[in-house]
Input
Amino acid sequence: MKQYIKINENDNVVVALVPLPKGFELSDGTVLNEDVDLGHKIATADIKKGEPVIKYDNLIGYASEDIKRGDHVHVHNIKTSLGDNNEYTYTPVDQIDRKVGEETFMGYNRKDGKAGVRNEIWIIPTVGCVNSIVKKMEKEAQKFVSGSLEAIVAFNHPYGCSQMGDDQENTREVLADLIRHPNAGGVLVVGLGCENSNIEEIKKHLGEYDEEHIKFMICQEHEDEVEYGLEILEKLSEYVKTFKREPISTSKLVVGLKCGGSDGLSGITANPTVGKFSDLLIERGGTTILTEVPEMFGAEQRLMNRAINEEVFHKTVLLINNFKDYYRANHQTIYENPSPGNKKGGISTLEDKSNGCVQKSGKSRVVGVLEYGERVTEPGLNLLSAPGNDLVASTALAAAGAQIILFTTGRGTPFASPVPTVKISSNSRIYDKKRNWIDFNAGELVDDEDMTLDQIGKKLYDLVMETANGKLVKAEEEGYHDLAIFKKGVTL
Output
């Protein structure tokens, strides 16, 4: 297998693909001055203090001290180049929109024209006060799961009351998005009765809805709320069982793209693999959504240059600058993003992380930019405003309409989201260690010298189609389901 990689010929660092010892010699004659772990960077030239460090053919920071050829390049000798808002220009890259024709997956057609990859009943509380009640309903309702009804799941969250302004509206909009999600063949919305985001408020965000598909109950109005809820769920389960899997065009498939617990190989293996998948799905009429805006900082111009027109370019500029303004409004710096796990895995700066992160977007044009809580409408690659937090961003992707989420990781994580969340490891070490978490090993891209990006991208595409057809991901097998709403306002 390969022992290190120079991602671009213009880079002045290489990345170790295995732990490399002091004295190891690269093919260009560079000799390591110290041990360097998997995913970490090695200077292939002398870099003076203040000079740029280049990876992915992009600036990932400046040397904070003189770096000698063969030195380990990391947080001790590199600093971020990021600062305030930048001036951007629209310099579109030449691209050919490749179409190969739609394919099909076996999913569930819904009355609103959307399609689901699961046929579940979701129990959604309007407020955190009823979390224990909906969990009890979930437990007692499992006896109704049979036939084409695949699961009954309650999604707890702590919000729905004591919120103000846009923060409260975000909660209402995301809950409404999930209530309308096509993976849910039926939904029971459970309110307390005195909360700010009560059922009548949620209905305003729903608009017209199918009364067979969506049911409501207010706990304060019933002597035994669990018994009443179970009566509703039993009737709802009979309706949901009328849906059967049938061939559906890939033009109705929406997949969210997310990474977390990244390491130095994420931008070399897992994220490019997801990018190749994204291009394959878009070529077949499908849609992908890239989020975690703070992990675009330092690589945003690459996305802007792929905007399909100037309107989308300007929306992308606002997407970036509005998130920077959010940081500043809360008196936070915009570049303190890489986590301790990221740094341990070899990521040194936010630009280092971002240039790896955007690899998930592949090479397709950016056709749309979505606000938090907005649902996707344009087929193709879309950008979504949401933070980098794994659970919050993944929930935002589901709320935007993603029926499946691809989640790349170099460190591993067991979390789930409201929809099937396919975990993709950047290296074989974490895949072999945590097979109960990880669904796909992109580490094969460096382990097997004969493996190409096209091949592993197609392999991931095939797994996603299997998942759309009903194959459970590891988190589903474990019974994990998580929901997290973006909290950014005052709590009363």
Q: What stands out?
A: The first strand starts at residue 4 and ends at 5.
